[in-house]
């Protein structure tokens, strides 16, 4: 992506985006050729230095692999190495609003290091929601989804949407009736 200067040209693809009300920090969890991820010492040292630069500014971390066990065993088997060290680091920075991840292809949330960590639904297939131990790896064609994170009134508000074509929108209120609760 040569037009994206902030990505750099070599090494881990980790970067910050500073031009928004919320500071964005991208982390590279890739282990080349493998399904699992890693935040090695080198990557965590880089993160520690970035966090120390602006310890009070609202900040959002994003990366591919979630730093927590989800209960979907076949995905957890391809989880993130280094999550405990990340958690210790994050705990020192209450300005971290979210840790946003993908990988598991389901909307999942968990408290992590004093902040909220989550996986986003996939824009393609979803992992099967099967929390039975050792369930075989499977995906389902549930509607694709996305998350929208709104910075408003000094807080980050996360909406999850589902893609597709649905009836509506219908007005809650018309001249002769209301169906508002
Ligand atoms: Fe993945």
Automatic annotation (TrEMBL):
InterPro entries linked to this entry: CNP_phosphodiesterase-III, Metallo-depent_PP-like
Protein name in the entry: Calcineurin-like phosphoesterase domain-containing protein
Keywords: Hydrolase, Metal-binding
Species assigned in the record: Kushneria pakistanensis
Domain of life: Bacteria
SUPFAM superfamilies documented for this protein: Metallo-dependent phosphatases
């Amino acid at each position: 992506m040569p037009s994206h200067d902030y990505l750099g040209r070599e090494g881990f693809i980790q970067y910050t985006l500073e031009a928004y009300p919320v500071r964005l920090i991208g982390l590279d969890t890739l282990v080349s050729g493998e399904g699992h991820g890693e935040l090695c010492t080198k990557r965590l040292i880089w993160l520690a230095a970035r966090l120390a630069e602006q310890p009070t500014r609202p900040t959002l971390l994003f990366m591919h692999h979630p730093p927590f066990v989800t209960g979907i065993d076949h995905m957890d088997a391809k989880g993130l190495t280094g999550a405990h060290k990340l958690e210790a680091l994050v705990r020192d920075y209450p300005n971290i609003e979210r840790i946003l991840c993908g990988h598991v292809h389901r909307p999942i949330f968990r408290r992590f290091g004093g902040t909220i960590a989550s996986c986003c639904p996939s824009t393609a297939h979803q992992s099967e929601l099967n929390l039975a131990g050792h369930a075989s790896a499977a995906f389902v064609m549930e509607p694709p989804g996305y998350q929208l994170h709104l910075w408003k009134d000094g807080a980050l508000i996360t909406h999850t949407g589902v893609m597709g074509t649905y009836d509506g929108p219908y007005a809650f209120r018309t001249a002769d009736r209301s169906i508002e609760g």
